[in-house]
Design goal:
14% of the residues lie in helices and 32% in strands. By secondary structure, it is of the alpha+beta class. The longest helix has 10 residues, at 81-90.
């Protein structure tokens, strides 16, 4: 099952699509928001007489599946070995990872925009806008002191996260929080794919295109700290509530890793693509939000 937040006739709805090839989305009126669905759970059934809409219709806007996450998004830094090398070459002091333990940080998300929406440049304070395509893991059950062996039982599904970053702010401040948390810096989508469509610990091709140029190309099997281990580590001391979003890290190919660095400019199109989930497309804009 694929879960969307759609705007239809000016109203946002939670909707479900039965399979990847279908464009027919059924509005789930029992759930006011995706957060409510994640808290209550969903068995994959479609209620009788459910209203259906065509997600390819120009009158239907695909929003972020979780426009307003209940908590900050939990992120992993330097979680692909090749990205660790390129990040350290850009700024050794800010990005050197000298321990085996994972690096966790968070992103404030006042609003997550969906596919087709703009990414604001914040050019008054940001001179080095960058992209990071990441697999987003959505928690579906309260997880506390969960073992790696049982961790996947607590996953609801997966989405695509673009961990947009202001590199000058990220490297200027001791913590990465500010440079990762500007308004509009967490596009997600286009949907949440339930874990039954991607069974086990998924190994998915992950790519980023900027204006049609392939920049990132890897596979989630190369995560240094895998999904079960991430959930185990975090849940030893904190409860991961339903609806928690974990961005698992990005592979090499980001703008700061190029020689010379190639940061995003006004009008650039970023396509974040993950096998089995789809494409998240956003346009950079210097217009105020």
């Amino acid at each position: 099952m694929r879960y969307y937040t759609l705007k239809h006739k000016g109203i946002a709805h939670v909707a479900a699509v039965k399979d990847a090839d279908s464009k027919r989305a059924y509005i789930l009126r029992a759930y006011k928001t995706m957060n409510v669905l994640l808290l209550k759970g969903h068995d994959g059934s479609i209620p009788g007489l459910s209203e259906a809409v065509d997600i390819s219709d120009p009158g239907v806007e695909i929003l972020s599946p979780i426009p307003h996450p209940r908590q900050d998004v939990i992120c992993l830094g330097i979680n692909y070995a090749d990205h660790a090398k390129e990040a350290e070459s850009f700024d050794k002091g800010a990005f050197t990872k000298d321990k085996a333990d994972p690096i966790f940080f968070s992103k404030r998300v006042n609003y997550s925009q969906g596919t087709g929406a703009v990414i604001p440049m914040h050019s008054d304070i940001c001179d080095s806008l960058d992209y990071e395509t990441e697999l987003g893991v959505i928690i579906g059950r309260a997880a506390y002191r969960v073992s790696a062996e049982d961790a996947m039982d607590y996953v609801f599904g997966y989405t695509i996260v673009n961990d947009v970053s202001a590199r000058n702010l990220q490297t200027r401040h001791k913590q990465w929080y500010f440079g990762k948390s500007l308004d509009g810096f967490t596009p997600m989508g286009p949907c949440i794919v339930s874990k039954d469509e991607l069974p086990g610990v998924p190994e998915l091709d992950i790519r980023t295109y900027v204006n049609g140029e392939l920049r990132q190309s890897s596979n989630t099997s190369y995560l240094i700290t895998g999904i079960p281990e991430i959930i185990e580590i975090l849940s030893q001391g904190m409860t991961l509530e339903p609806g928690t979003v974990i961005a698992t890290g990005t592979p090499s190919g980001v703008g700061m890793g190029m020689n010379p660095p190639r940061f995003l400019e006004n009008g650039d199109e970023i396509v974040s693509e993950i096998e089995g989930i789809g494409r998240l497309t956003n346009i950079v804009s210097d217009m105020p939000i």
